[in-house]
Amino acid sequence: MTVFLLIIVGLYVIMGLTKTWTPKLGLDLRGGQTITLTATNETVPMESLELARDIIQQRVDGLGVGEASVAIQGDQNIVVSAPNVERDDLAELVGTTAQLAFRPVLQVAAGTGTSATPTPEPGETPAPGLPTAPPSPTATPSEGTSGSADAALLDMADVLAYEPTEADLQALADFTCGDPTHEDPTRTLVACDESGSAKYLLGLTAIRGQDLETASFGIPQGDLAYAVTLSFNSEGAARLSELTGTLVGNQDPRNMFAIVLDGTVESAATAQDKIANGEAIIRGSFDADSASALANVLKFGSLPLSFEPSQVETVSPTLGGEQLRVGIIAGLIGLAVVALYSFLYYRAMGIVVVASLAVAGAATYAMMVLLGSVVGFALNLPGIAGAIVGIAVTADSFIIYFERIRDQIREGNSLKSALTSGWEKARGTIVISDAVSLLSAGVLFLLAVGSVRGFAFTLGLTTLIDLAVVFFFTRPLVELLGRTRYFGEGRRGSGLDAAHMGVTQEALLGRRLRRKGTTSTTPQEA
């Protein structure tokens, strides 16, 4: 019991060291967004819908939020729920549908957006306060293995030799940021950056988005700022080598290539060196958020179907906080009723029930807080219900144990031996009961979706904790109390007295006489 309690104390020490004292909250408790996306394609194959669901799930997971769920509804809808995410951010993330493409930059002009910050020249560091990622970061080679493959798009020689026509330049001049665009890999494209502060005339598609294998962000070794690292497959590496090898010798802005998604220039990088190994690093005035956003766009940029948001629901933090408050109050009332009943029925032995519930609650809270930090577990309202139900199972385990003790005393065993034999008979029942709860929680977790999984997870977690509590705390505490004079002698009000255990005075007297070796069988004969 001492070791078990020290382990629980250790959990709280870890919480203190990480300065994490509260669990992560789910969508229904801290607020968030639910967006229903409807496919606009004429035909919607289920395979494409499932692929789109997987890609959107990866995008949402890339935000680093817990309890985000993406589920197919019907034959053309995908429902996305994410807690603590702004509406516009989530809509932009999950609604991006176009193919990702890398195109050479032919011309750059001032945009038509509302930003008051002057558009930086190519290669210039953006002024503080510019609301977008830097339009002109630099792409440089990083260590890796080179690769080559035959081009699948237009030949790179044609892509790199293309010169803008009068019609292209007129299209650039006439384009207004926000106008609809139509991407054709064999034609030029006019597109703006996210803020609308710059617009670009882009050449033919040089590299497809599917040729990008991975994208990640971080601070490269030897650097002091965040950057985005790209890794291409063999075909993409070969085309990237040709693209950067040609661009590096050009003047601004013809030494740049743009990363385009859904008609928006996500980034325009300046090629500083030829990248021959398919591994590139995009540097610029990135912070952690902008670098993470760009990496997510690059990793999860393509959807096989076109979607439009058909319904957007917002759960306010105020409503979520009220639900949390009511849920906690309901749980405390329920546990208080259990504690009151325990003292009324088990007398002073109710101490064991209350102490076991307190230990189980402390262990459960610590685990939920730490799991939120380690694996992103987010507590929702059904999860609170599962935790309360699971913690209450601890009281059930004590009831089973106590009733087995009572059975052993009724059969003529002494209190001391009943405490031991009662545990031996109760142990199997407790394990089987918790095993059934674990099986139910496991099946529900695997088959359910959304917030119901939160109920299943916390039910399974608290059931495991109950097993630990009843073996390493409840049983030792009962045996320790049995060694005291008050409980061990079954005094009145202890919960182990003869009247409460259902043993008659005649039976007690006969038991005492048998221990003395007499042959009397009734009080009168004695």
UniProtKB/TrEMBL annotation:
Residues 112-148 are annotated as: Disordered. One of its GO terms (biological process) is protein transport by the Sec complex. Residues 307-482 form the Protein export membrane protein SecD/SecF C-terminal domain. Keywords: Cell membrane, Membrane, Protein transport, Translocation, Transmembrane, Transmembrane helix, Transport. Residues 52-105 form the Protein translocase subunit SecDF P1 domain. Residues 119-138 have a biased composition (Pro residues). One of its GO terms (molecular function) is protein-transporting ATPase activity. Residues 198-304 form the SecDF P1 head subdomain domain. Residues 139-148 have a biased composition (Low complexity). It comes from the Bacteria. The chain crosses the membrane at residues 324-344, 351-378, 384-402, 430-449, 455-473. GO terms for cellular component: plasma membrane. InterPro entries: SecD, SecD/SecF_arch_bac, SecD_1st, SecD_SecF_C, SecD_SecF_C_bact, SecDF_P1_head. Belongs to the SecD/SecF family. SecD subfamily. Forms a complex with SecF. Part of the essential Sec protein translocation apparatus which comprises SecA, SecYEG and auxiliary proteins SecDF. Other proteins may also be involved. Part of the Sec protein translocase complex. Interacts with the SecYEG preprotein conducting channel. SecDF uses the proton motive force (PMF) to complete protein translocation after the ATP-dependent function of SecA. This is Protein translocase subunit SecD. It comes from Tessaracoccus bendigoensis DSM 12906.
